[in-house]
Design a protein that fits this description.
The chain is 19% helix and 43% strand. It is of the alpha+beta class. The longest helix is centred in the last third of the chain and has 15 residues. Strand 2 and strand 3 form a beta hairpin. It contains 3 helices and 12 strands; from the N terminus they run E-E-E-E-E-E-E-H-E-E-E-E-E-H-H. It is elongated.
């Protein structure tokens, strides 16, 4: 049962996102207005060290008024390579420059509302370059044992779905 977009009109736009209104035909012939949010791709990166610890950020999200562990992430600038954006975000937010990045997974966190694709990468090594340029992004940065990730997800300590999916995939790849 496929929905068909008949038209789409912009409602609001800024440098971060666009809100559009779509005229949609349902399979039974009915039509409805559907708001959607158009976003630039998001690049995410982390590293896992020889002790099977993953680099995470502890941060507060004011929108949900919640604290949680996350990976370094940010939007891909116009014309920027996604993998390069992931490396840039990791260094800016953590002070660690990743070694060669490997694709981990790509997810669509809310594909019923937005077209955002989050591209997650990981490296097996990282070099500390100094305090993070964007230290305001998190309260602290820490190397957390990968073996603790499933329990942290279950306890809600990693509340963002994209981060939980990536970290669980990384746990599976490294620890089985």
């Amino acid at each position: 049962m496929q929905w068909t977009k008949l038209s789409e009109q912009p409602v609001y736009e800024n440098r971060w996102f666009r809100v559009n209104l779509a005229d949609v035909a349902l399979p039974d012939g009915r039509r409805l207005d559907h708001y959607l949010i158009r976003l630039r791709p998001v690049a995410v990166a982390t590293a896992v060290n020889e002790a099977d610890e993953v680099l995470l950020l502890w941060r507060h999200r004011f929108i949900t008024d919640s604290w949680g562990w996350e990976l370094a992430a940010g939007v891909v600038e116009d014309g920027e390579d996604i993998e390069a954006a992931a490396a840039r975000e990791m260094e800016e937010e953590t002070g660690w420059r990743p070694g060669p990045l490997r694709p981990l997974l790509t997810v669509e966190p809310a594909n019923g509302l937005t077209d955002a694709r989050h591209h997650l990468y990981w490296a097996e090594e990282a070099t500390y370059t100094g305090p993070p340029e964007d230290a305001f992004e998190s309260s602290r940065r820490a190397w957390i044992p990968l073996k603790e990730i499933p329990g942290m997800v279950a306890r809600g300590e990693i509340p963002a779905a994209n981060m939980a999916a990536g970290l669980l995939m990384l746990h599976h790849l490294r620890l089985g």
